[in-house]
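Bumping with the actual sequence this time:
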Amino acid sequence: MSLKKAYLLVLLLLLIDQASKIYIKTHFVLQERIKVLDQNWFQIFFIENEGMAWGVELPGEYGKLFLTLFRILAVGGIAYWLHDSVKKHGSNYLIVAIALILTGAFGNIIDSVFYGIIFDDSYGKVATLFSDEPYGTLFHGKVVDMFYFPIIEDYVLPSWLPIWGGKEFTFFNAIFNVADMAISTGVGILIVFNKKAFEHDHNEHN
């Protein structure tokens, strides 16, 4: 795959990611959720993530800024990896995987860098794009998540189970966005198709 095609893939997915986030931000109140096609296992559930994946946050006044700057450096490294892999005629598996990971990282960086200065908050109301009263500052935006697939939700575990007995259980309670899916898919390709992705490197060492 050429570098041009790889960047076109990144751009296309990035547009889908940002369009979906802006739509959710300007049509949903924070914590609002709806069932898709009236199915409980597929929901749109609007939350905002202030930290890393799975809601982990860095403590301290500069934790968010450090995280955002780290993401920017990471995107630079991934972009170089993509350029280098194309230059060395890496496999399509590898190039597509890197392009997906780059898309995901870049997509969430846009939220972190700019959303704090272009949106007002979503607490109890729908946010306004290009608001005169933004909720944050540059580099202190929140990442928008919306896809929720609770295959099993609020199931009460049998009381006879040790430790977890009587507690509610939800299978697959992660809430994510298009950028997250791109990263997960890219990493999945590298894991499942490892030999095909790195076949050029394997051949060089044989």
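The tokens above came from a reply further down the thread. The mean pLDDT is 89.
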